[in-house]
Every structure is written in structure tokens, then in C-alpha cells.
Amino acid sequence: MVSQTISDPVYRDARLETLVDAHALTKIIGGSGTTTTILDGVTFAVPTRSLFAINGPSGSGKSTLLNILTGIDRPTSGRVVFAGHEIGDMSENQLARWRGRNVGIVFQFFQLLPTLTAMENVELALELGGAIPRGHRRERGLASLEEVGMADLANRLPSQLSGGQQQRVAIARALANDPPVLIADEPTGNLDSKTAHQIFDLLQELTARGKSVLYVTHDRELAARATARIDLLDGHIVGGAPAGQAAPSAEAR
């Protein structure tokens, strides 16, 4: 299967109601008689252009699920259909190209290169993505920083930025190649309460601009602000809210 690119209209088609369809995802690790089940038959769907939360305490399987949804990890069984394409059919190289063009990832610990300025961190993502011609990368990088309110600090190193500012740069980097989907793993976990809500407000704004945002959190208050949500505990879905918004998988209907 050929991986999709950001130019493929299926990801931005207003008629596409389901972005991700996860069916019976199971992840078992270990061997030689000693195994641990991280996920056990998890089935759900993510609506397109939603702010979707995967909520649960530490050890519930949240990050493993996120990695499987993005193809970073493979399930032991089950499948993930992303905008109509089953990512389990892709090779590792196809998955890497697909992620680079279609998914922006934001990490809890920012993962900015300390010797590069904010602008250079964003430009590096553009270089690796390869979707923006070299001559337009600085302009695009500045536009990404402007989008998150960091253009004025484009020439500062990460050590010269606060935690909230670094996370904004990380979001700008994730947005640089204009992916239709943003994935955030505990994006506010390293921030104080006020800054965490500011970053979350930014994620909400992105869905208003047509992006789909999936985020992992253990913070019930932030999870409650999602337009759709699943609650994980010990590898099982034990709830979801608001009522009726966390749509069941198409295969489960």
C-alpha cells in the first residue's frame, strides 16, 4: 500500500466522519512463559476534526495506544484504519514517510535540540519532512512560530525559554509541515497549571482551524475539555465522555 501524503484530500474532506478506527487492539509483551498484557481488545473511533483525549492513570496503556495509532509500535493483534487506510499494511519505511507528512507529534519533554534556536528546530522538521522547498523553509518556519505566538523569540535557544514557551516551539515544529493530524503525549505534563491551560487553549484553537488533535493525559480536568474521550484503566476502556461523542468503532456498530 502506498502511504498517503498531505496533499491527499481524504484527510481534509469535510465528509470524512471518522479519522481513526481502532479495532480489537491487543498488545502483549514478554515471553518464555512470562507475559504482560498492556492493551486488551481496545476498540473505538476518533471523529475527524475532533479534540480527542486518551485519559487514564500511569500504567493504563495510554502511551502504548498512542504509539500504535501512529504506527510507531505494532499491536500483537487488532488493526488501525487511519482515514480509510490500514496502517498495519505499510512497511516501516512507508510508515515513516506517512508520519512525516500526515502526523505532527508533540512530546511531554519538548525534545528540542538544545544547540539549535527555536527557528532552527522548526526548520529541521521542515528539512526532514521534505514537503517544503528549501527556499521557502524559513518563511514557513516563521509562520509556524507566529501561529503559536513565538515568532518574536525565534532566535532564542531552548535554554533561554520557559517551559511553556518551549512547548509552543514544539507545537510549531509539529505543525511546520502542515499535517492534518496532531498527536500530543502528555503535552501539559511538565507545565504549571496556568501554562498547561494556555497550551491546551492553543490545541483547541487548532481544531477550530480544521486540525484533528489526539492527546494523552492523566489530568481529568483537561480530559473533560475534549470533544470526545476514552478512559483507559489496565489496558481496557472503562468509560468515555461527553456522552455519545466517543463514537464506537465502525466494526463494532
Protein model, in words:
With 253 residues, this protein is of the alpha/beta class. The protein has helices at residues 62-69, 92-102, 118-129, 137-147, 163-175, 193-208, 220-223; strands at 18-31, 34-47, 51-55, 77-82, 85-86, 103-106, 181-185, 212-217, 228-233, 236-239. The strands form two sheets. The chain has a six-stranded mixed sheet with strand order 6-7-8-3-9-10, sandwiched between helices. α5 packs parallel to α6.
Rg calculated over all Cα atoms: 18 Å
CATH class (first level) name: Alpha Beta
Given the structure, what is the number of helices? Answer: 7
- Largest sheet geometry: 6 strands, mixed
Strand content: 25-35%
Mean pLDDT: 85
Oligomer: single chain
Low-confidence stretches: 1-14, 242-253
**Class computed from helices, strands and strand pairing:** alpha/beta
CATH architecture: 3-Layer(aba) Sandwich
Q: Count the strands?
A: 10
Domain tally: 1
N- and C-termini, Cα separation: 26 Å
Features:
253 residues, alpha/beta, 7 helices, Rossmann fold, disordered C terminus, disordered N terminus, 4-stranded antiparallel beta sheet
Provide a brief overview of the structure.
With 253 residues, the protein is α/β, with parallel strands linked by helices.
